[in-house]
Amino acid sequence: MSSLDTLAFDNGFARLPGTFHARVQATPVPDPYLVCHSPDALALLGLDADAIHRRELIETLAGNRLLPGMDPVAALYAGHQFGHYVPQLGDGRALLLGEVQTPNGRGWEIQIKGGGRTPYSRGGDGRAVLRSSIREFLCSEAMHALGIPTTRALAIVGSDLPVYREDEETAALVTRLAPSFVRFGSFEVFYYRNQPEPIRELADYVIRRYYPEFAGLDEPYSAFLHEVMRRTAELMAAWQAVGFAHGVMNTDNMSILGLTLDYGPFGFLDAFDPGFVCNHSDTGGRYAFDQQPDVGAWNVTKLAQALVPLLSVEAASSAIQDYPQFFGRAYVARMSAKIGLPPAGDSVSFILDLLELLAAHRVDYTLFFRRLCDFDSAPGAVNAPLRDLFPDRAAFDAWAARYAAALRQTGVPDAERRVALRAVSPRYILRNHLAETAIRRAADQRDYGEVARLHALLTRPYDDQPESEAYAAEPPDWARRIEVSCSS
Ligand code: AMP
Ligand code: MG
User: Burial, 88: exposed, middle or buried (Cβ in 10 Å; 0-12, 13-18, 19+)?
Assistant: First the structure.
């Protein structure tokens, strides 16, 4: 374990030429206080558990001071937003403070979001509000605990500085960690500016740092594109299997490492609805839940296009063509694991029929799969807890009889399958109403206990936590009125 003073910074991205970023100092906030933190994320940096309470660290995460070795920059990028190319985005409120080299040889970039205006802020104030910071913090750490690739969240610091959205709110900064925050849009910006050199420079940097296995190949760039495609396809499979809707799958929010990036108006499915749109601002439903795999593919084509100056057209199109196969394989594997059938033969038709059934009866997605872990495959078994989730019991019975027969054919004892299924179908997800309750207490009463409690709960999503039964339940009626938009 190291202390704050001995953190070793080696700021790879900041050392790239000024084409890629702007050197910026954060705008300080008054009297920052710690709202919550993730001990696991702290440990990634090699810091001891007490470090988070040091005034020096809180001030640093608030953007009020720098630790020795930090060299803050805002990254330049562009991107396709809702299908349209926007030539200049960039970190409008995020700042990369520095890259910590940990004793185990991994580098972690430390980024604060909400640190004030940058050259890329356009009309924005450079700030983030407590509400959206809590959502990002909780979901980042929850996704990681679910086993889904994601940027991490170290902490939130708040300040009483007023920030104006639809209403007056207060400022907060969420600290994010990732090996890299480079996005698809980081390449697109130079493609549309007709500047092949920076594309090559950035690709070389990313390959050298994050895909060194491709560096010596004859066609490193096509191997790189293919790998990003694969990771993206598999990330989409992971989202679909757990019922996660991102909400703003613009190419500036697509990670070059295949991480879930930028938690804005995301949502987990409650009742299964393939057309679920979590973002209130997405009136056309472009980023509806069931569109995500296709949007992932479309986004990969935008990356491929940006890399065309480095690639043969054949290499670019082959990466794109392989996407459906990678997505399909990963999705079938994940869903088969959730139903306990081998990922071949009948399992695909079981999965499709089941999803249709869940959609037709608006069954709670997470509850269904968790209760399915305890399915009794004996002939004639009723499986009441599952059956009760269906308004139309007969529809469930017909499916359950087929399913029970298929399970019996596998020869796997129920008890054994139960253990395997419980490791892939979580009991606890970050339902919107849970986040909302934690946000209300934090914002209205300065009570951060519920944020900490939810965070602790969601770091063990696959474990039964009997004292937290209520957190696994279907959402209350008032949850339907929660509207989540891009405002953050
Ligand atoms: P997002 O929808 O959060 O991914 O943001 C899209 C773009 O808008 C990014 O370039 C952000 O940096 C920028 N942005 C979002 N909110 C703000 C804000 N309050 N101030 C400045 N830039 C912002
Ligand atoms: Mg973004």
Answer: middle
